[in-house]
Automatic annotation (TrEMBL):
Residues 1-32 are annotated as: Disordered. This is DNA topoisomerase 6 subunit B. Transmembrane segments: none annotated. Signal peptide: none annotated. HAMAP family: Top6B. Belongs to the TOP6B family. It is an enzyme of class 5 (isomerase). It is found in: Nucleus. GO terms for cellular component: DNA topoisomerase type II (double strand cut, ATP-hydrolyzing) complex; nucleus. GO terms for molecular function: ATP binding; DNA binding; DNA topoisomerase type II (double strand cut, ATP-hydrolyzing) activity; identical protein binding; kinase activity. It comes from Macleaya cordata (Five-seeded plume-poppy). ATP binds at residues 65, 165, 186-187, 195-202, 521. Component of the DNA topoisomerase VI involved in chromatin organization and progression of endoreduplication cycles. Relaxes both positive and negative superturns and exhibits a strong decatenase activity. The B subunit binds ATP.
Length: 674
């Protein structure tokens, strides 16, 4: 990338390797870098650290764009992701390079001398033998380290990544800039979206340019368009502009709308397979209204993967609404930009219409407070720099109502619960959706889910993090959710054993501005107290719900135990009582001892074998049963059924064309077919 150190700048060397003239300190030369160059050189900050991670990040950037796009037109997303492995020969023929046999073997990084090879194979054989020995002795066997072989760094793997959606598509003329100009996009407004920086798709292209040199291909069509835009382009890194190879309109016979993006990049499926599948699975959890088809295609048939994540609900969260800035969240630059862009004439109109939470009378009070130089009718575009500073100062000091969370679109308790049940099949689950909070003038909502038990869940805390409905898979240790769950929740208080129980913690945060650390959108730091405390209280709310369920379960178990214990003693107890009664009956009959009234009556029945050991056994068993039943009733009326949270259920016909009825509640939807 860097062109520094060209031959013209090298000192002149003599034959002996010494400089003719004393070395002069190299003068520093002023240079500029384009954003594309900057991100190409620092691709790790956008999640393109190495080939494996780059494959993962490419998939995620494309999937997230597809989801944003389908949701923006309220279309239930249908997304197909294909990763096709391209062998070296195929790749070479794609770029028109002739395969060449190695001639000078020792030149290569993966060259091994005969001696080194023998040594390596002997060591691998020894390791395998030890493993087998340990296994035979029943000792714990460590996961065998993959055989290293002699793979050198030259063995790059190439993949064609394709992502197709049924979204909004893009305007024909906008496509080159959307994919070929770093820091361009349609999501810079104040709105909850997965994308934000105008970077992701361009990074995939930059990586493809860096690793394979191949361009990106985009097909796109918008609703009602009779053509499909096709564009093949790459990026001029130094000038940060698209370099178009082909841009044309093609027939759209099927009236398809959406986008299909294709890039060929270097990657590493072996090391990032599980991360990519995890990502897809977690995306399916937080987006159960989407349908995903994921395919990995290889020439080696048993490497192939096809997973369909079926749509589980038609209930889609509402489309997030673009909102205006909150006065407490603007800086001087932003106020100046808003003044330049506003269509409003006066200061009063400007304050009233360009910000949230400033009504007319409040705007008048603010203007009064600004001082004698200000008036409601003054032209906003005539404000001087000092006057703008005054407005900014007042914005920082005045008390404004918090922004409402109406513009946000959280996943919803229903979707979260559905996702958890679908993914983990837990024994118990609780969900909670908090009310909006505010961080630096941006509203945010935290939702949490908590599960106990389930399939494929390890003991201890299993943490699932989502931000603006994106799964976060990296930097777990530094994330606010992990830290809160580990350090700030006293699980014992809720009868949950932090190390023994299989605990699933799900936290989803949505906001108009997620304070990600870095452009890779990998985690949310633990340094924002507003977010940390909202996360803590949401998890605690779930804990409280689970505690009452756990208590009920414990009580039911104890009761069961008590009943079992009592029943266990029935034969002995009845045997002992019966023996005493028989003795007494004999004494009564032989007149050794006289009993009167009711006692005499019972003893008579014992002698006549009308009361037997079995009679006593049956009576006692019935009594234990009765006591258990009464206790259960008592328990149910005191703390049980009547206090269960109740939710109204309503009927919703999705549209008149369907012949089914949905009964919707926040926790379930029942569909009745007629
Ligand atoms: N599948 C798609 N359908 C419709 N528009 C798309 C699609 N993919 C990308 N775009 C458009 O291209 C723009 C640039 O995408 P890009 O991934 O570079 O950035 P972004 O999504 O805006 O932000 P971020 O870098 O945070 O992901 C998007 O803002 C969007 O308008």
């Amino acid at each position: 990338m860097d062109t520094e150190g060209g031959s013209s700048e090298s000192p002149i060397e003599t034959k002996k390797g010494k400089s003719k003239t004393p070395k002069k300190a190299k003068e520093s030369v002023l240079k500029q870098k384009s954003p594309a160059e900057f991100f190409a050189e620092n691709k790790n900050i956008a999640g393109f650290d190495n080939p494996g991670k780059s494959l993962y990040t490419t998939v995620r950037e494309l999937v997230e764009n597809s989801l944003d796009s389908a949701e923006s037109i309220s279309e239930l997303p249908i997304i197909e992701v294909t990763i096709e492995e391209i062998g070296k020969s195929k790749f070479n023929s794609m770029i028109g390079l002739v395969d060449r046999e190695r001639v000078d073997e020792a030149l290569y990084d993966d060259f091994e001398t005969v001696k080194a090879r023998e040594k390596r194979l002997a060591k691998e054989a020894r390791d395998q033998e030890n493993q087998a020995k340990n296994a035979a002795l029943g000792k714990k066997v460590k996961e065998p380290a993959p055989l290293k072989g002699i793979k050198g760094r030259g063995e790059a793997s190439f993949f064609r990544v394709t992502c197709k959606d049924n979204g909004k598509g893009m305007a024909h003329d906008d496509i080159p800039n959307m994919f070929g100009r770093v820091l361009s996009g349609t999501k810079y407004g104040l709105k909850q979206t997965r994308g934000k920086f105008g970077l992701g798709a361009k990074m995939a292209l930059i990586w493809s340019k860096m690793s394979t040199g191949l361009p990106i291909e985009i097909s796109s069509s918008m609703r009602g368009q009779n053509y499909v835009s096709f564009c093949r382009l790459d990026i001029d890194i130094h000038r940060n502009i698209p370099h178009i190879h082909l841009h044309e309109k093609r027939d759209n016979k099927e009236r398809w709308h959406g986008a299909e993006i294709q890039v060929v990049i270097e990657g590493n499926w072996t090391t990032y397979r599980s991360k990519i599948l995890h990502y897809m699975r977690q995306m399916a959890v937080i987006t159960p209204y989407a349908q995903f088809l994921f395919k990995f295609v290889s020439d080696v048939a048993d490497k192939n993967v096809t997973i369909r994540f079926a749509r589980r609900t038609d209930v889609m969260p509402p489309v997030p609404i673009e909102t205006k800035h909150h006065p407490s969240a603007v800086d001087l630059l932003l106020i100046k930009r808003l003044i330049t862009e506003t269509s409003k004439q006066t200061l009063l109109q400007f304050l009233q219409h360009e910000f949230v939470n400033i009504g007319k009378s409040f705007a008048e009070r603010l203007i009064g407070e600004m001082g004698p130089d200000f008036s409601p009718k003054m032209a906003v575009k005539s404000l001087t720099s000092q006057q703008i500073v005054r407005i900014h100062q007042l914005f920082r000091q005045a008390k404004f109502d918090d922004p409402s969370g109406d513009c946000l679109s959280p996943a919803g308790e229903y979707n979260l619960r559905l996702g958890i049940i679908k993914e983990l099949h837990p024994d118990m689950v609780a969900t909670y959706s908090g009310s909006p909070h505010v961080f630096e003038g941006h509203p945010f909502i935290v939702e949490a889910g908590l599960s106990l038990g389930g399939k494929d869940v390890k003991q201890g805390l299993n943490i699932f993090r989502f931000a603006n409905r994106i799964p976060l898979l990296f930097e777990q240790g530094a994330d606010v959710v992990t830290r809160t769950a580990l350090k700030r929740i006293n699980w014992n208080n809720y009868k949950i054993n932090q190390t023994q129980d299989k605990i699933g913690v799900f936290v989803s945060i949505v906001s108009t501005k997620i304070p990600f650390k870095g452009t890779g959108k990998e985690y949310i730091g633990d340094d924002i107290s507003e977010i940390a405390s909202a996360v803590k209280s949401s998890i605690q709310q779930c804990c409280v719900q689970l505690k009452s369920k756990i208590m009920k379960k414990i009580q039911a178990r104890e009761q069961q135990e008590r009943k079992r214990n009592l029943s266990k003693y029935i034969p002995d107890a009845t045997g002992a009582i019966y023996d005493v009664l028989r003795e007494m009956a004999q004494q009564h009959a032989s007149k050794k001892k006289r009993y009167e009234g009711e006692d005499a009556e019972i003893l008579k029945q014992v002698s006549a074998r009308l009361i037997t050991k079995q009679t006593l056994h049956d009576k006692l068993a019935k009594h234990v049963e009765q006591v258990d039943y009464e206790m259960a009733l008592d328990y149910a009326t005191q703390s049980g059924v009547s206090e269960e949270p109740r939710e109204p259920i309503y009927i919703q016909a999705l549209d008149s064309a369907h012949d089914f009825i949905d009964f919707c509640s926040p926790v379930c939807v029942l569909r009745l077919f007629q």
